[in-house]
Amino acid sequence: MAFENLGEKLQNVFKKLKGKGKLSEKDVRDAMREVRLALLEADVNFRVVKDFVATLTEKAVGHAVLEALNPGQQVIKLVDQELTALMGSTQSQLTFSSKPPTVYMMVGLQGAGKTTSCGKIAGILRKQGKQPLLVACDIYRPAAIKQLQVVGKTYNIPVFEMGDKADPANIAEKGIEYANKNGHDVVLIDTAGRLHIDEALMEELVRVRTTVKPQEILLVIDAMTGQDAVNVAKTFDETLGLDGIIVTKLDSDTRGGAVLSVKAITGKPVKYVGMGEKLEDMEPFYPDRMASRILGMGDVLSLIDKAQQAFDEKQAAELEAKIRQNSLTLDDFLQQMQQMKKMGPLKDILSMMPGVNQSQLAGVDIDEKSTAHVEAIIQSMTPHERRDPSVLNGSRKRRIAAGSGRTIQEVNRLLKQFEEMRKMMKGFTGNMSGKKGKKGRKGMMPNLPFFN
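Now predict its structure.
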């Protein structure tokens, strides 16, 4: 999970500060030394760390902080503000040309995820009502054109290509002509990458840029390359003049140093971060939300965004009515599980909850596979059994267990969990309506099937 180690270390530092009623200048400087080490271990560029800690220390040892009622909280607030500023302060969105098509030129080293990112950005723009076109200008990497076509098909985006013998600048130019003739208002150019930066690569990219005059040049970098990503970003910016950065594979990098460094070194904003394989895993980058996640303060706004994308409004309204009427069925239970899966891994969702830090999540065993087991059990039931589980006798349970490939014990456990959830919901609705609903023990929650 992104920033897992950094978040845990910073939260431990602040826990010590909050445990003291009054802070001395020595307390603050000792804490800043630990912050410095945590950032360096997260592979943040050393110059960025030096400037960040110096600025933070100067502000934190000020009279207003040390004499505050809750000095520990004041230091945390300062770190939050400085982290947000380090990553760009505000969200930076893609800009659009006043005269379509808007052209985005995607650049980066081989293996950074450039081709996949092209498709994902195009998919996001299609959801916003645009008509994107992908243009295949990588003529060197084996099967690069085929890969872009597969990505385009995945997101239902057309691909313009001229094979692997044409000149990339000419392909880009012809692609824009094709977009004009066929009603495409956005063009994403997938350029060639290399295993490392070389002069021939840069000359080719400069020719493409000069030919098509893109609205924005977007650099795709792999989060797992750490400080090397910063060096790559600096070189590409000096040669081409970048407009924004897309950081991929952030879900696989527990350090996160690239995201914390590139804006400070290049001055160019991170516009999107890739958190997984699916389209919805390409997220707009919000510096303030990311800072909150790192410091264990949650990210409720991103959680709401994910929920709005995953949950159907009509279904949500119907579910609310059923909860109030205490008429939930196993079909409803299944539907909610499937929509929750669209929001991403449960551990990532929990990490967005305020007050949940990485050390707490480390002790939680979340079995993502068991949700598939629950789906198989419910789908092995008849429609009547899903509506009224009370009819499930021993022979029916044996049939369901055999049909789903699970055990009778698992079937019984699911039915018990479902009944616990119904009772809990009944208690909530009883309290909301002013009636005395049946309550379980204080703080009791059903044992959800994806927790062991």
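The longest strand covers residues 216-222.
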